[in-house]
Amino acid sequence: MKFISWNINGIRSVHKKDLFVPFVEQYKPDVICLQETKAEQHESAVDLPDYKEYWNSAQKKGYSGTAIFVKTNSNTEKITKDSPLSVRLGLPEEICKKYKLREDSYGDPNTEGRVIAAEFTDFFVVSVYTPNSKEDLSRLTLRHKHWDPAFLEYMKELEKDLPDGKAGKPVIFCGDLNVAHTADDLANPKQNEGKHGYTTEEREGIDAMVKAGFVDTFRLFTEGNGHYTWWTHWANARARNVGWRIDYFFVSHVLKSKVKSSKILPDVLGSDHCPILLEIKD
Questions:
Q1: pLDDT tens figures, 49-100
Q2: Is 184 a catalytic residue?
């Protein structure tokens, strides 16, 4: 199966540039995970007849939001056998309460459309848009103490036995995690040490995911620096490849041997982020 994740930074904007549909038609992914859709489903003019769309939009208009598009049988109205068995929006309320994940001065992160999970026969797919800690680090505590541990517990919960007694399933989670994990994941680590996106606290969130058994699939195939998924609009950064790798595909450890490829697609334009691609052996 082929998966795409992309922080699209406004699906209406990318669609108006006539860049989204041609991209999908070229790569033909089985599952598309989007972040920062900045729209509700009825506001999107995207027409992808071969895909079924599932959205988790923010309550605040034109802000944040995630979505999962699943390829269907284009010859009929019936969804293929690999369509989601269920779709879950946001983080579970009991986990939010446990980690005291609540409204701050920016709002309630669990009403910002930041997580959507689709259950398939053999695995879960989760699209996530992690809260930005902000340039002045005013949302760092929320992220480090509340969001990161809450999200990780949710991923581990999906792996465990489900409430109906059925066995849990491996998890593929992807999206904009708003952090460069190591010095190889950004062009200028020394200059950005301690700044938002590269604080010790944010990086510890990724450390905890790895310790819990989740695998950064890109690093199975590619070592070193120079491989980025986001570039600022300033100073011609993208053309000079002065960027950050903050978009990831993680998989449960049991799926590690099934990962066929994990790539960054830096030549795909339309957003300040580029898409990333994951292929899993059937």
A1: 999 999 999 999 999 999 999 998 644 344 455 589 999 999 999 999 999 9
A2: no
The string of DSSP letters for 190-232 reads HHHTTSTTS-HHHHHHHHHHHHTT-EEGGGGT--SS---SB--
pTM: 0.95
Superfamily per CATH, domain 2-280: Endonuclease/exonuclease/phosphatase (3.60.10.10)
> What letter would DSSP give residue 107?
B
- Whether 129 is a known active-site residue: answer yes
Catalytic residue (one of 51, 54, 129, 228): 129
Q: What is the pLDDT of residues 120-135, one digit of tens each?
A: 999 999 999 999 999 9
- Please give the Cα distance from 226 to 238 (Å, whole number): 11
In which residue are the tokens 């590690």 written? 256
Q: Where are the domains of the chain?
A: 2-280
Distance CA 8, CA 15 (A): 10
Identified catalytic residue from 176, 185, 216, 247: 176
